[in-house]
Amino acid sequence: MRRTASTCGGVVMNVVHVSNTPVAGSPGNIVSALNRLTDIRARHIVFNSSAYRTRTFAVDIDWESQREEAFDAIAAADVIHIHQYFALENTFGADFQRHFGKKKLIRQYHSAPDLWAKGDAAVVASIVNEAVPQLVIAQGPERYYPFARVVPNVIPLHDSRYLPMEPPDGLPVVVFSPSGRASAWKTRWETKGAPQTLALLRKLQREGLCKLELIVDRPHDECLRARQQASIVIDECVTGNYHLSGLEALSQGKPTIGYLDQRVQAQLRTITGAVELPWIDVRLEEAEQPLRELLASRSLRTAAGAASRKWMETYYDDAGLIQHYRRAYLDLFEAPERFGVARFDSEIERWLAVGLPNHHWSARRRARAPFGRALRSLGGWVGIHQI
Fold first, then answer.
1. SS3 143
2. Cα separation, 233 vs 235, whole angstroms
3. Strand order in 256-258's β-sheet?
4. Burial of 90 (0-12, 13-18, 19+ CB in 10 A)
């Protein structure tokens, strides 16, 4: 760490974040909050800034066009913060890690390990048991990383794009931003249940109750501004997880529909200190009637949206949440023994965290099988680019 002539006279640590893709903007949010709200100086190097094609995010250092600046940032760093699981040498080049020297390393996960393991238990074990200190977001993937420290996904709560805006008069607009076409019942986690969710939303639209705005393959800044105009936002109602888009909608003062399983709720309560949570918490199977009532009542939508924003201001302000990252970096130097400690003390804890929620999802999948067959008999669902 380097002493500087800062006004506080303290120690400023330099941290460089490294990712293969923009990771849906999460590392960028963390880096921004570190620089704005702490004495830590952070940079973010992205290997493939256009990994999502037209779904773009703001990028600090683009590896392809700013390689010299990337190496300068690494040289100045005290900590290398790696996001997700990928081989550094296969991505950035065989000699990339040589530039790290003896710097402290930490890796953060934003997805369940099977995203990369594809059912291979040996790969899962190698990911989970890696000797490098680990962080994991306080969302669905948390339960699969028993040796990782749980940290929040942060958003810039007071950025103008994240502030509430009154929706225009007229037919209520429901916004949904699926990250792909995956069925709710084909994959456990890497889905927002687009086919099933869209079937419900299109039904309500055909009845003249709302206008559906589907956000896909658009720059993140444009997505934020479009969501500010919404009357209702769908996070996702199938996996039990929540997403950055849900946090963004809550910050924007929107009634936000989502399903959070008990494990996710517990992690949110632990990280924020809140008892009540702001999502309108329904599974997809139960979402139709709540949506109808919200669509029918502007005053109900207004009250729900105001409660969303108030909760975020009370429990999810980035100035407080970013301290989880600052503390983790300090512990790399001052208390490294705090990493790698198992968070599940018994078999029953592990089963309650992983096994039981998976059984719930499997039972829902079996119950929805007739609907899936009917959908396939109609030729599937209309592609998201055609809407």
1. helix
2. 6
3. 211-214, 173-176, 232-234, 256-258, 280-281
4. exposed
What is the Cα–Cα distance from 32 to 272, expressed in whole angstroms? Answer: 20
Torsion of CA 78, 272, 290, 140, to 10 degrees: 50
CATH of the domain at 84: 3.40.50
Considering its fold, how many domains does the chain have in total? 2
Tell me which residue of 91, 77, 86, 83 sits closest to 26, measured CA to CA: 83
Quick count: other Cβ atoms within 10 Å of Cβ 339? 18
Q: Look up the domain containing 147 and give its range.
A: 2-151
Instruction: Indicate which CATH number applies to the domain containing 227.
Output: 3.40.50.2000
Note the pLDDT tens digit of each residue in 311-357.
999 999 999 999 999 999 999 999 999 999 999 989 999 999 999 99
CA distance 11 to 18: 23
- Spatial separation of the C-alpha atoms in residues 32 and 62, rounded to whole Å: 16
C-alpha–C-alpha distance, residues 22 and 18, integer Å: 9
Whole-angstrom distance between the N-terminal and C-terminal Cα of the chain?
52
Please tell me the pTM assigned to this model.
Answer: 0.91
pLDDT digits (tens, 9 = 90+) for 209-232: 999 999 998 999 999 999 999 999
Task: Report, in angstroms and rounded to the nearest whole number, the Rg of the chain calculated over CA atoms.
Answer: 21
Q: Rounded distance, CA 244 to CA 242, Å?
A: 7
Q: Where are the beta strands (DSSP E) in 181-305?
A: 211-214, 232-234, 256-258, 280-281
